[in-house]
Fold:
Amino acid sequence: MKQRFAVFLAASLGLGLGLFTTQGWAQAFPNQAVRLISPFPAGSGPDVVARIVGERLSASWKQPVLVDTRPGANGFLAMNAGKAAAPTGYDLVLADVGHLSISPSLFKKLPYDPKADYAPVGGLYRLSFFVVVGTNSPYQSVKELLAAAAAQPGKMTYGSNSVGGPLHLGAAQVEAASNTKMVHVPFKEISQLYIAVSTGEVDWAIGSLASAGPLLKAGKVRLLAIGDNVRSSIMPNVPTIEESGGPKNVTVRSWVSVLAPKGTPAAVVSTLNKSLNEVLAQPEVAEKLSGFGFVPYPISPAALTSLIDTETVFYADMVKRTGASAD
Structure:
């Protein structure tokens, strides 16, 4: 009887110590600098947002939050750095729909596994893309643009900054939904893309307020429609694709999320998610993000996991339709 009691007592103390350790870790986190590994170039919209949010997190945690930019190689440099980091919550990685839901279908040998290598933490922001044409374009609506495409199959062109990227597949979605045949013209730089749209070198493209914004402000391009089911609060005068005479239920959107290395304790992921969502709920943060056409995206780890899975299935079909490949 004494032996059984001793075993029960030891097990109870061990369980209690384990709970205390986990809870204590979550309560103490973070007690040192946190690193945000970013695949986006310094000065880009996502990079600026990461620094805005990082500053707010730093103020909340009373710990430095450092943005480590590692652009290039299709995001592989940043994603691999996040994958290799210790699963403590002190090293996080930013990733968008391309890194997590498009690349698995676009690359035959992806050097990371979006599901197996990372623990979803939460959303950072989302954005809707627009149908962009040059100021002197003859098309005043999506209906007119698609009618011209239908009248001369294979003649109309649309551009993007990469084969199989969000801009390419977004335009391809419009093409598929309207049952038209157009020609995709890829450009090396996103700035070159919208210059080509503005001069009429290509007929149209998909773009965000961050990417096409400079030429929009300069009066060189126009927005025919937004790729969403509802109008943007930032650009309320721009109709949806359906309102502009295009096909129904075409949504051309993207998002950026925050991930931790796989194996990061659930209690730490929960703490990170709570802190991130609190920052994104601040009105001044939303105001700063709106300057890029971005909307704060506070979601749970479970919701982010579901989003990644759903988008992966959707884009696998789009990649198959277009025959896009990055290999």
Summary: The chain is about 45% helix and 20% strand. The two ends are 68 Å apart (CA to CA). Residues 2-28 form the longest helix (27 residues). Residues 31-126+255-322 form a domain with the D-Maltodextrin-Binding Protein; domain 2 fold (CATH 3.40.190.150).
